[in-house]
Write a structure and sequence with these properties.
Distance between the termini: 36 Å
Low-confidence stretches: none
Strand content: under 5%
Strand order of the largest sheet: 1-2
Number of strands: 4
Shape: globular
Structural class: mainly alpha
Radius of gyration: 20 Å
Helix content: 55-70%
Largest sheet: 2 strands, antiparallel
Number of helices: 9
Order of helices and strands: HHHHEHHHHEEEH
Oligomer: single chain
Number of domains: 1
Mean pLDDT: 85
Length: 307
């Protein structure tokens, strides 16, 4: 329990640090001139137009990333072996298979959405935006997997066993995604804007059916990621899955618009994506995750039979 208390302090300090530095980053980027150099100028302008809550979220992620290694040392963990994560001779294969087993069911699901007219195709994407999605997917996947399936899952296994750790970390993983900042933003950003946003955490949550749908999806994602980590004693398969889900969903959100006039008309089969439009809701998205889980079990069983 002592280790869990330290993890809680790590999370709290990351959030506070993000709240403090976010206004500085926001004001600094606003002063960057949009240099006329190809698409760089448009990219700078796009970043400058981002609402303050986006800067706040990114600041938390960067703070958590920078504090992750010192936290490992504070906990007396000097390598991932202390969390039952070991070198993986199938690392590249696991990473690639994780990407494919996440993207294929997701692509089939998105094709179905477009074919049925539940989403409308709007091809408005350029290379720099795809690169931004890819960078976000890689950074977020590595950070969250090192924390949730590396550090937290490893520590919880000591206290609660494999099954208890799987469920505890998956539920915690799902719950944290609802602690995002409100989207209203602030017209005038001062040095205390980040701290004020902390008082608004959790505002604007969706209605109960959609909230439960999004929570179920995120919990299943956490279960899949924890299961493959426990099965492989490695993070590579989970990182491939996580990055592919983020990249695939962000790219689809960019080229397609939700076209169902009444948000809950198709529910429980399909609902408007929740948690900032990034988490598909409904039975159909869950079925795509079940298909991913089937692929993963076949892959893990194949590797086990060949070892």
């Amino acid at each position: 329990m002592k280790h869990l208390a330290k993890i809680f302090f790590y999370l709290l300090f990351s959030v506070l640090l993000g709240a403090i530095v976010a206004p500085w980053i926001y004001r600094g980027i606003q002063r960057v001139p949009a240099v006329d150099f190809g698409n760089v100028a448009s990219f700078i302008l796009e970043v400058q137009k981002m609402p303050f809550h986006r800067y706040f979220s990114r600041s938390i992620q960067v703070a958590a990333l920078l504090l992750l290694w010192p936290t490992f040392r504070w906990l007396g963990i000097y390598d991932l072996a202390g969390c039952s994560i070991y070198p993986n001779k199938y690392a590249r294969a696991d990473l690639l298979f994780g990407i494919l087993s996440a993207l294929l069911p997701l692509a089939l699901l998105e094709i179905l959405f477009l074919w049925k007219g539940w989403y409308v195709f709007t091809p408005m994407v350029h290379l720099l935006l795809l690169m931004k999605f890819l960078m976000t997917a890689v950074v977020v996947a590595m950070l969250e997997e090192y924390f949730f399936r590396g550090l937290l899952l490893g520590i919880c296994r000591r206290a609660f066993g494999d099954q208890g750790a799987l469920w505890l970390t998956s539920l915690f993983f799902a719950a944290l995604h609802f602690l995002n900042m409100p989207h209203g933003g602030e017209i005038s950003v001062d040095w205390f804007s980040g701290l004020r946003l902390l008082g608004e955490v959790g505002e604007g949550l969706p209605k109960i059916p959609l909230l439960l749908g999004a929570f179920t999806t995120l919990t299943l994602l956490g279960i899949i990621l924890a299961w493959v980590t426990l099965r492989t004693h490695s993070l590579w398969l989970a990182i491939g899955l996580h990055a592919a889900w983020i990249f695939g969903q962000q790219s689809f959100n960019q080229i397609a618009l939700y076209a169902i006039s009444t948000a809950d008309r198709m529910f429980p089969w399909l609902g408007r994506p929740q948690v900032h439009g990034m988490v598909p809701v409904g039975v159909l998205p869950l079925l795509s995750l079940v298909l991913t889980l089937v692929f993963l079990k076949m892959w893990c069983d194949l590797k086990h039979s060949n070892s």
